[in-house]
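Sample entry copied in:
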Amino acid sequence: MNLLRKQLAVVSAAATAAIGGFIIGAPAAQAAGGTAPACITRVVNGTSDGFSVYLDNNCGKTMRVKVIVDSGGDSPCFTMSAGSNRSWYYTGIFGQYGRTVTC
């Protein structure tokens, strides 16, 4: 019986290590970054079926930003070179502009 206990202890330790390794090694879910800096100008305008967001990069370097929509789908991550601008349009009845974040 002593041998059986040792074998069970080894198997248990190996299983615990494997599970722990999986949990520790599992990639974290990708979350939106922090709020975009003030050098990214945002102008939000309501439209008849949603809203538009005008983004202007005045940061002096390339920035990656996305628009977060409360109760709706977010924009893709936009790579904006220094001095560039772009508009993004949300179409939907429930979504509201939430914020602009780095990504």
Remarks:
- The chain has one helix and six strands.
